[in-house]
Design goal:
With 289 residues, this protein is α/β, with parallel strands linked by helices. It has 7 helices and 17 strands. The chain binds flavin-adenine dinucleotide (FAD).
C-alpha cells in the first residue's frame, strides 16, 4: 500500500491551507474530507474579514478553495476518518474499509459543535459507533439507530438500511430527511443513550428505542476519540506555536486547536502545521542517512 508523507484530515480553510503548503513543499499528501469543503464555510452568508476576498459569500469561498486545489492538482479523497492509529514510524487511518497510511498527520477537522450525549462516550465501541461505513458489518441483519446531525449523514443511514434489518433515524436538524422508505424517521430529540438488557437504547422525552447498534454521526468527532493518546483540553487539541501536538508526527490546526474560530486563523495555522510537518519529515529522513 502507498504510504503518503502527510495525511491531512479536513477540507475547511485549515486543511486546504495545509494541503497547498505541503504540496508546495513537494510532499506526497492525502487530503481527506469533502468536495463541498466545509459546512462552516458553505453556510456563511457573507464574509467580511477574509483578506483579498471582500464580502465573499461562503459558497463562493468554498468554490475558490476547490478551484485552487484543482489547479494545484490536489485531489480530495471523500472519506470520513474514524480513527488514527500510531504504528511506530507511521500512522494508519481508518477510512471505512480502507486503512491508508502516512508518515505524518495534520488534524484539521474543525470543532465538534454538539456536546456528546449522556452515555455516548461510555458506550463507544460497545454498541455506539461514529462510523457507519466502518461498523455496519457488525450489525448485519440487526437493528440500528442513527442519530444524524446534518443531512450529509443521510447517505450513511441509507447504506445501513441495505445491511441492517431495521434502521431508525433521528434527524437533529429541521429539514428533510430524504431516505429510503425502509428507514423509520423518528422526529424526537435523543436525550441519552442507555445500556439496557435489550442493547444500547436511545432515550427521548417520548420513548425508549433499543437497538443493537447506535450510530452517532456528526461533522466532527471529539479529537481524543479520533486519535488515541492525543492530549486535549476539552474539545480542543493542545498544540504549541508550531502546531505540534503531544504525539510526534501529529499536528493540528484551525478550530480544533481552540478559539477564536476564524477562517484566517484556521488558514494561518494550516500553513504553519504543513511547514512543521514537512520539517518533521525532513529531519526524519536526514536521521536515516
Ligand atoms: C455560519 C457561520 C459563519 C461564519 N462566519 C465567519 C466569518 O465571517 N469570519 C470568520 O473568520 N469566521 C467565520 N466563521 C467561523 C469559521 O467558519 C471557522 O472558524 C472555520 O471554518 C474553521 O475552519 P477549520 O478548517 O478549522 O474547520 P471547518 O471549516 O469546520 O472544517 C472542518 C473540515 O473537517 C472535515 N472533517 C471533520 N471530521 C472529519 C473526519 N473524521 N474525517 C474527514 N473529514 C472530517 C469536515 O468535513 C470539514 O471539511 C463562521 C462560521 C459559521 C458556522
Amino acid at each position: 500500500m502507498e504510504r503518503y508523507d502527510i495525511a491531512i484530515i479536513g477540507t475547511g480553510p485549515a486543511g486546504v491551507s495545509a494541503a497547498l503548503t505541503a504540496k508546495n513543499r513537494n510532499k506526497r499528501i492525502l487530503l481527506l474530507g469533502s468536495r463541498q469543503m466545509s459546512e462552516k464555510v458553505e453556510k456563511a452568508h457573507e464574509i467580511r474579514n477574509y483578506p483579498g476576498l471582500p464580502f465573499v459569500k461562503g459558497e463562493e469561498l468554498a468554490a475558490a478553495f476547490r478551484d485552487q486545489l484543482d489547479r494545484m492538482e490536489i485531489e480530495i479523497t471523500e472519506k470520513r476518518i474514524g480513527a488514527v492509529y500510531a504504528m511506530g514510524d507511521y500512522f494508519a487511518l481508518q477510512a471505512g474499509e480502507e486503512m491508508p497510511e502516512a508518515k505524518a498527520v495534520i488534524l484539521a477537522t474543525g470543532v465538534a459543535s454538539a456536546k456528546t450525549l449522556p452515555g455516548e462516550e461510555a458506550l463507544l465501541g460497545r454498541g455506539v459507533s461514529y462510523c457507519a461505513t466502518c461498523d455496519a458489518p457488525l450489525y448485519r441483519g440487526r437493528t440500528a439507530a442513527v442519530i444524524g446531525y446534518s443531512p450529509r449523514e443521510e447517505s450513511e443511514a441509507a447504506f445501513l438500511s441495505e445491511v441492517c434489518s431495521r434502521v431508525m433515524y433521528f434527524p437533529m436538524y429541521p429539514e428533510g430527511p430524504v431516505l429510503p422508505d425502509k428507514v423509520e424517521v423518528i422526529r424526537e430529540k435523543p436525550a441519552e443513550i442507555l445500556k439496557t438488557e435489550d442493547g444500547p437504547t436511545v432515550v427521548t422525552a417520548a420513548g425508549k428505542y433499543p437497538a443493537d447498534g447506535v450510530f452517532v454521526l456528526r461533522e466532527a468527532v471529539a479529537p481524543a476519540q479520533l486519535v488515541p493518546g492525543l492530549e486535549t483540553d476539552g474539545a480542543h487539541v493542545k498544540v504549541n506555536r508550531r502546531m505540534e501536538t503531544n504525539l510526534p508526527g501529529v499536528f493540528a490546526c484551525g478550530d480544533i486547536t481552540g478559539t477564536p474560530y476564524q477562517y484566517v486563523k484556521a488558514a494561518g495555522e494550516g500553513n504553519v502545521a504543513a511547514i512543521s510537518a514537512a520539517a518533521y519529515l525532513d529531519r526524519r529522513e536526514n536521521r536515516k542517512e
